[in-house]
């Protein structure tokens, strides 16, 4: 990846190489150069980060405005004119599966390289990949973990099969276990970390077995006599308290499951559950990763104009808008303090504590100067819940580990739908 110095050298070289009789027309964001026999195509200096649920669809129902919006984004050959990345807090499927769903929804080819799931940044946490992990969630959680680089994996359902007597909320099942199961020592490798991908189907089972795993520091054959001072690493993806599906009311999400887990652990032990890493919006590490993915799309598209502005379009003030504004503050501090000094992330300590040094180095060369947050009214947020109400009596729907700053939940741009969002962005960028 080019360094900041190399970028400056390239800019200087381009100026020197520009033909003498070349005339530049248009804005800085979209330029065409004519010298008699050469025409440079219009290029954007901005990129788009799309949330999915509540912006492009509601559950399985595609919003008509989404189809119209993406017609504006494609050229006459059906190819995207602007670099686009889809950033979702969903974590119950593989990137490839989500890309296929988006392709069907938007009626043109979306690649897995354009999709950032809530768990995608864990691919960069290579120092965790050799740990034996317990994974919670639904869908192909084992395949998801493998795709991220983890090698030693046990699912909650597999752990329950090994220790059936630990899952006894169901009274009818408990009577069956009394007849057939005798306590015995289980030969199972100790668990080194817990990874929570998304809300499980059987909440009580995951809550019980995750707490058992944390209390025993991964050795479920043991009986702890005191709460461990430092428990094993706990990694959570997606802190959305609520999300929007086909129903007219918001549905509880993985953030609600985490709230239950944290409350139970603290009530049982008297201590707070500590997270090693939180990924998904609004964490800065997720926006770091999304920006890196978008820059890769810029290169694949063959664009030469640097991307200076990122627009993050979402429906949830507590995650989409808060996260975009939080990352915008980070970008500002990065520019002021120089890239090499701005390595902190909101959750889990410094970037160097979470990522390999090579990943930190890679992300520091991302080039955006500003991130604008765009709020649509087709999901969690609606016109009935006006920004004036949110500002007057703000309710903190964010995760407990994100310090709540009400102004960060206020968008740069508010529009009705994603189609209007694209129109407003094009207008601002003088892009046609």
Explain the overall architecture.
The chain is built from 14 helices and 17 strands. With 432 residues, it is α/β, with parallel strands linked by helices. The protein folds into three domains: 1-41, no CATH class; 43-120 and 281-429, HAD superfamily/HAD-like (Rossmann fold, 3-Layer(aba) Sandwich), CATH 3.40.50.1000; 122-279, Rossmann fold, CATH 3.40.50.1000. The strands form five sheets. The protein has a six-stranded parallel sheet with strand order 7-6-3-15-16-17, with helices on both faces. A five-stranded parallel sheet has the order 9-8-10-11-14, with helices on both faces. A hairpin with a 2-residue loop joins β4 (57-58) and β5 (61-62). The longest helix has 21 residues, at 317-337. The radius of gyration is 24 Å and the shape is elongated. The two termini are 30 Å apart.
How would you describe this structure in keywords?
single chain, 432 residues, alpha/beta, Rossmann fold, 3 domains, six-stranded parallel β-sheet, five-stranded parallel β-sheet, 17 strands, 37% helix, 14% strand, elongated, disordered N terminus
């Amino acid at each position: 990846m080019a360094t900041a110095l190399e970028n400056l050298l390239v800019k200087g070289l381009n100026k020197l190489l520009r033909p003498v009789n070349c005339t530049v027309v248009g804005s800085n964001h979209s330029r065409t150069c004519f010298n008699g026999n050469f025409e440079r195509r219009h290029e954007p200096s901005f990129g788009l980060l799309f949330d999915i649920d509540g912006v492009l669809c509601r559950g399985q129902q595609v919003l008509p405005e989404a189809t119209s919006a993406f017609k504006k984004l494609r050229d006459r050959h059906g190819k995207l004119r602007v670099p686009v990345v889809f950033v979702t807090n969903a974590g119950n499927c593989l990137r490839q599966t989500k890309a296929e769903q988006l392709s069907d929804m938007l009626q043109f080819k979306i690649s897995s390289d354009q999709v950032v799931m809530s768990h995608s940044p864990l691919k960069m946490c290579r120092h965790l990949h050799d740990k034996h992990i317990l994974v919670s969630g639904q869908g192909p959680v084992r395949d998801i973990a493998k795709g991220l680089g983890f090698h030693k994996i046990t699912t909650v359902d597999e752990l329950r099969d090994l220790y059936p007597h630990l899952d006894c909320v169901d009274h009818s099942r408990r009577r069956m276990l009394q007849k057939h199961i005798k306590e015995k020592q289980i030969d199972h490798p100790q668990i080194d970390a817990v990874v929570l991908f998304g809300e499980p189907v059987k909440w009580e089972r995951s809550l019980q077995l995750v707490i058992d795993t944390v209390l025993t520091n991964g050795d479920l054959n043991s009986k702890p006599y005191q709460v461990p001072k430092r428990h094993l690493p706990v990694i959570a993806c997606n802190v959305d308290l609520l999300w929007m599906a086909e129903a007219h009311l918001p549905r509880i999400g993985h953030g609600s499951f985490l709230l239950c887990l944290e409350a139970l652990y603290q009530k049982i032990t008297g201590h707070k559950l500590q997270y090693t890493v939180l990924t998904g919006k609004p964490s800065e590490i997720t926006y770091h990763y999304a920006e890196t993915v978008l820059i890769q799309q810029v290169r694949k598209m063959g664009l030469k104009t640097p991307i200076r502005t990122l627009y993050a379009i979402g429906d949830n003030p507590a995650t989409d808008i808060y996260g975009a504004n939080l990352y915008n503050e980070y970008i500002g501090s990065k520019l002021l303090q120089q890239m090499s000094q701005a390595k902190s992330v909101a959750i889990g300590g410094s970037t160097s504590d979470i990522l390999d040094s090579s990943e930190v180095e890679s992300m520091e060369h991302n080039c955006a100067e500003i991130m604008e947050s765009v709020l649509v009214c087709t999901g969690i947020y609606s016109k009935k819940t006006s920004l004036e109400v949110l500002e007057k009596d703000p309710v903190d729907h964010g995760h407990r580990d994100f310090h709540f700053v009400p102004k960060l939940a206020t968008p740069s741009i508010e529009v009705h739908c994603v189609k209007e969002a694209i129109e407003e962005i094009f207008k601002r960028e003088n892009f046609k």
